[in-house]
Design brief:
Elements (H helix, E strand, L loop, with lengths): L3 H21 L1 H32 L4 H26 L3 H18 L1 H15 L1
């Protein structure tokens, strides 16, 4: 908890700086938000690695974990692209990016859904 406070404070200050920069220089605001996103990902890399190693030690289903991890990454990227498009004023492109993200997630979890449906039909039939 104590390590989260400085990170959240830095992100909050970056958000306020981004709001101020958006008014005067949208390009620099975009660069600031991209820099903050990269900094946050680098800052979270070590704790996430520990969580992933703990999950592997639990010996979970590797295919299910892979599908969920892939879909989480797709959702994060698609949402970020959608937000960037909305901020740029391209609402139609933002809608398409959101739809593409949902379709890609569905494609990524399709093998997992097939296993779930086979299990359900096996229990029902």
């Amino acid at each position: 908890m104590s390590a989260a406070v400085p990170v959240l404070t830095a992100l909050l200050l970056t958000a306020f700086a981004g709001i101020l920069l958006q008014r005067y220089s949208p390009a620099f605001a975009l660069l600031l938000s991209l820099g903050a996103a990269v900094w946050l990902l680098l800052r979270l890399a070590q704790p996430l690695r520990g969580v992933l190693q703990a999950m592997v030690q639990l010996r979970t289903n590797a295919q299910a974990f892979s599908c969920l991890l892939r879909s989480a990454g797709i959702l994060l990227l698609a949402d970020y692209v959608r937000t960037l498009c909305e901020e740029a004023g391209a609402d139609a492109l933002a809608w398409c990016a959101g739809l593409a993200g949902r379709c890609l997630v569905l494609a990524a979890v399709w093998p997992l859904l097939e296993q779930i449906f086979q299990t359900i039909w096996g229990l029902a039939g």
